[in-house]
Amino acid sequence: MNRTYHDDYLQSCRQPGHFWADKASLIDWHTAPTQVLTQDDGQFRWFSDGLLNTSYLALDGHVAAGRGEQTAIIYDSPVTGIKRNISYAGLLEDVACCAGMLRGLGVRRGDRVIIYMPMVPEAVVAMLACARLGAVHCVVFGGFAAHELAVRIDDAGADVLVTASCGIEVDRTISYKPLVDAAMAKAEHAIRHCVVLQRPRCLAEMQNGRDVDWATAMAAAEPVDAVPVKATDPLYILYTSGTTGKPKGVVRDHGGHAVAMRFSMSAVYGVGPGDVFWAASDVGWVVGHSYIVYGPLLAGCTTVLYEGKPVRTPDAGSFWRVCAEHGVKTLFAAPTAFRAIRKEDPEAKLARNHDLSRLERIYLAGERLDPPTWKWLQEHFQRPVIDHWWQTETGWAIAANPAGYELQPVKPGSATWPMPGFEVAVLDDDGRMLEAGAQGNICLRLPMPPGCLTGIWGDSERFHDGYLARFAGYYQSGDAGYIDEEGYLFVMGRTDDIINVAGHRLSTGEMEEVLGAHPAVAECAVIGIPDELKGELPLGLVVLKDGVDRDAAKLNDELVLAVRQEIGAVACFRRALVVNRLPKTRSGKILRRIMRQMAAGESYTVPSTIDDPACLAELAIQLEALQLNVAS
Ligand code: COA
Ligand code: AMP
After folding, report:
1. Is 46 among the domain residues?
2. What's the pTM value of the predicted model, to 2 decimals?
3. Is the CB of 388 under 6 A from ligand 2?
4. Does 394 reside within a domain?
5. Which residue, 342, 497, 529, 572, could crosslink 599 as a Cys pair with Cβ 3.0–4.6 Å?
6. From atom 2 of ligand 1, which residue's Cα is the shortest distance away?
7. Domain that holds residue 546
8. Helix (H, G, I), strand (E, B), or coil: what is residue 602?
C-alpha cells in the first residue's frame, strides 16, 4: 500500500463515502453501486444499489482470472488422518453442485439454511452454496446442544438443515444426528429436509422423506450459476450470546461484507493472492466465517481448514507442524490455544522440529491477549505477534497493528490502533468523551464501516436497544477500556454479563436460566472466574429453596449436566456453589459485578444501596475456599 495508515484513517473518518467507494472498486460487481452510503429508516446502508454474488467473487472470479489450479482449501485433519488440497476450480465445481442440490430441495433466494457441521470441507461448500443462491446460511457451532440448535432453527425459520453424521473430538466421536433429530423434534418450525454427510467413523440413521444423503444428492445435482443479489441482502445470520437467554442473530450483508473482507485481508493481515492463511478457529464462530472462509477466498489466498486442537491431536507441536507443512504465512488463533500449547511445551521445543521460515506473523483475538502469552510467543518465535480486537457484530478488526501499512511498536495488552473506518471513542456512563488514559465504555461513532452487522435477525428493536440507544450517535461495543496518549487502545473486559471461555463468548444469563429451572434452586447467579488456561470459567452460585436439603456434590452434578444438555459442552460449566444468599441492592438487583471482583481477588467498592453488607463477608469466605481449590 502506498498510502500511510494515517492518510487512510483520516479519510475514512472524514469522507467515509470516498474512502469506501475506492475500496469497493476493487471487487467485481455484477452491477457496480452508484450509492455508497445511504440511510434507510435511520440505519446506515452500504452500496445499496449494487448487485453482486459473494460465491462468484470467492470462486468464479479467481477461476476466470486463471487461478483455477491454485489450492483454495488445505484440509488437514489430525483426528481422522486425512489431508486434502482442493483447488479453486474443484471448489467451484462442488459449490455449484451443492447449490443445485439445495435448489432441488426448494431453497430459494432469501431462504435460511442451518449448517451444523464439524470442520470438514463440506461445511465451507454448504456456506458458499447458500451464498451462490442468495440463501442465508446460519452456521451453528458443533459444541452447542440440541436445545440451542432448536432455538436457532425457530428464530431463523429455516426449512433445510445440513449436518454430518459426527464430529470428532480428541478422545471421542460425537454423533451429531441424534442431537439434530432432538433439535428438530423440539423446534416449533419444521425442517423439511435434513442433508447428512455420512462420515465413515459413524453412520447416521436416516428418516425417509426428510433426510437426504449428501453424497447421493451431490452426485445427482446439476451445477448452478451464481445469482446476483442486492448488496444489502443478508449473506448470513450468526448467533452470538447476548445478555439475555435468547441468542442474537447477527445479520451480515453481501456487499459491505465483501468489500470489508477484501480490505481487511490487505490492511490488517498484509496478505494477497497465493498466500497461505490459517485461522485456527471453527466455522461456527465469526473468526471462521471471516477468516477461514470468506476473507481468504475473496482475497485469492489458500485457507487452511484444520480439524484438530492445539494440543492432544496428537501433541503441542501440531500448530507448528501445520505451519511448516503447508507454508503458512499468517497464523491466527485465540490466546487460549497458545496458553494450552505453552502449558504442555513451555520451552516450545516441539516447534524446533519444524521449518517455520515462511511464517511471517502471528495474530491473536477472541479474548484479551494477556501479556505473558504475548511475551512467550515473542520470545520463542521472534516475529510480529499481533493482538487485534473485534466482535461477531463487527465481522473484522476494530483495532489492530496495521501490518498492511506499517507495523507499529507493540505495547503488550493493547490491540494497537483503530482500523480505517472505525472511529473509536471512550465514553463515561453519561456519554461524555473521556481523556487519554481514562477507562470507560468503548464505543464506535456511526456510521460503522462496511462489513459490520446490519441488524439482529427478526428484531430491529433489539439492534437499536442493545447497541445504539445508550449513547446517541454511537454503537456501544459492550467492552470497557481506554486509549493512551499515543492512540493505543487497551480493551480490558466486558461491561455486561457476557463471559469469555477459551475464546468462546457465552451468556451468563442463559446459564442462569438453566440453573434457575432446577427444582431445588430458589435463585442463582453465574459469574466468570479467572482461569489460567481458558481465561474465564463460569461459576454458578445457587440459593436453595426453603426446606430443601440436598447433597451439594449431587446437586452440583445435576446442575452441570443440565447446562451441558441445554447449552452444550462448550459452556465448560463445571461448578455450582450453594450459598445462603446472594448480595443484592435494596431494590433486589443481584450484585454480580462485586461477586466477580471478589472471585478475581480484585478490590471492590461496596455500594451504599447494598441490602445487607454482612452477606458479602459470608460470600468472601466461600469464594476464598473455592479459589484454593481452583488453584490446586
Ligand atoms: N463439537 C462438539 N463438542 C465440542 C466441540 C465441537 N466442535 N468443540 C468443543 N467441544 C467440547 C469439547 O469436547 C469439551 O467437552 P468435554 O467437556 O466433554 O471435554 C468442551 O466442548 C469444551 O471444549 P474446549 O473448550 O475445546 O476445551 P478443551 O479442554 O477440550 O480444549 C483448548 C482446551 C484450549 C485446547 C481449546 O479450548 C481450544 O482449542 N481453544 C481455542 C478455541 C478457539 O479457537 N476459539 C476461537 C474462537 S475465535
Ligand atoms: P466474539 O463476538 O465471540 O468474537 O467475542 C467478542 C468479544 O471478545 C469482544 O467484545 C471482547 O470482549 C472479546 N475480545 C475479542 N478480541 C479481543 C481482544 N483482542 N482483546 C480483548 N478482548 C477481545
Report:
1. no
2. 0.96
3. yes
4. no
5. 529
6. 143
7. 498-631
8. coil
